[in-house]
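Title: Prediction job returns without error message
Component: structure pipeline
Severity: low
Priority: P3
Assignee: unassigned

Description:
Job completed but the reporter wants confirmation the result is attached to the right record. Sequence as submitted:
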Amino acid sequence: MGFTPALHAEWIKIRTLRSLVGALCAMLSATVVFSALSAVSAGTETATDGDDLDPLFSALFGVNFGQIAAMAFATTAVSSEFRGGALRLSLAAVPHRGIWFAAKLTAIALPVLTVGLATGLVTVAVGSAVLGEKADALSTADCLRGALGCAAYLTLMALLAAGLTAVLRSGTAALSILVPFLLIVSFVVGDMSGNMADLLPDRAGQVVLHSTWQGTLGPWAGLAVTAAWTATAVAAGTWQLRHRDA
């Protein structure tokens, strides 16, 4: 079986599993809701408090929570293959493991990218509306960059989670590493590590969500760093699939 029919088969798995559809919906809703709450909080700050306000990141703050849903989507899609002998059946249909994994990753990336773009556009619109006058400094180019960056960042983090799940063969194990890392290590340890924190996958990728930024990485360079982390995880997952029994 070639790549196209393998992709079609993986897409059927994605769209027929309710938990995966729910994860995509949660990605959009969590991002929009938490971004709106952040914008409300930022909008109530006094003029003095708001001098350092980053309106674009305030409007897109919910990405910090939406990325967890994106990673849960990816880990569930991959880990389901390691339960009940599903992987043996998949490889019986697509013996070339590289083609199968590429189809699996594509079936994960496309819906996350699509929903991520919709999420970015809706979130920027809602956040800007809630911020009111404090969003006047945002240009159309800033808003478009934020929306596109949101989609790219969520997709990269989902693929990173997929690669790690293939390495560990467990979605629970992958999330137990990624979620504490994003919510604790990146914020707490990262603040004490100086410029090295700029190279963490989440911090680097989220530069694109800011109106202004400090440090050595710009918006697209930051996404490139996140892409490098993702490529490493995917490469490790591919190696594991090729060298371990199904």
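Comment from assignee: result matches the submitted record. The chain has ten helices and no strands.
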